[in-house]
Write a structure and sequence with these properties.
two-stranded antiparallel sheet, SH3 type barrels, about 180 residues, 5-stranded antiparallel beta sheet, PspA, 4 helices
């Protein structure tokens, strides 16, 4: 019984393979026929290899101004290594540029572009910054990304700084006038 099953399976597989292979051969024959028609339309001989249909290169001797250095370098190479310069026959020489293009700078700009211009002293005092703070005055100051409430403990008018005690944790900080605002 097992031998019969084995034989039946083998014949079924063989028939399926033959059927598939026959179909693939038919498809390949159809493709070859279409390729032959395309080759005939393009004027290529049927049966020519892909290397024969590649564009031909022609050997171009170097200009007279470059022949002398080429001969000197050729003497250093072993004679078994040929030196050839290949140029495609369709290629046209590239136009030369008359003006030198500025090089693009990559990365971070130089320090000259990043620094702020120097502050010019003005004859009139600016109204945005108060001239004096009083000890015990409640203010708000900026530090980092935050803004905090504090009391003024000391004022240095000469250095334009204020010593503050933060209300939340009594931390003492020294801040310039422009970072401090009355509360």
């Amino acid at each position: 019984m097992q031998n019969d099953m084995k034989g039946i399976i083998q014949t079924a597989v063989a028939e399926a393979v033959e059927k598939t292979m026959g179909r693939q051969v038919e498809l390949l024959e159809r493709q070859l026929e279409l390729l032959g028609r395309i080759a005939q339309f393009l004027g290529i001989e049927p049966g020519s290899t892909s290397a024969a249909s590649a564009p031909k290169r022609t050997l171009v001797p170097p200009p007279a101004s470059k022949r002398a250095p080429a001969l000197a370098s050729a003497q250093k190479r072993p004679s078994s290594v040929p030196v050839r310069k290949w140029v495609r026959s369709e290629a046209a020489p590239k136009p030369t540029r008359t003006k030198v293009a500025p090089q693009k700078r990559r990365g971070r700009p130089s320090a000259a572009g990043r620094t702020a211009p120097a502050a010019v002293p003005s004859s009139s005092p600016s109204p945005a910054t108060p001239v004096a703070y009083e000890v015990g005055q409640e203010v708000r100051y900026k530090q980092g990304r935050g803004s905090f409430s504090a009391k003024v403990t000391a004022v240095d008018a000469k250095a334009k700084t204020v010593t503050l005690a933060r209300i939340s944790d009594n931390l003492k900080v020294v801040r310039p006038f422009d970072k401090v605002t009355p509360a």
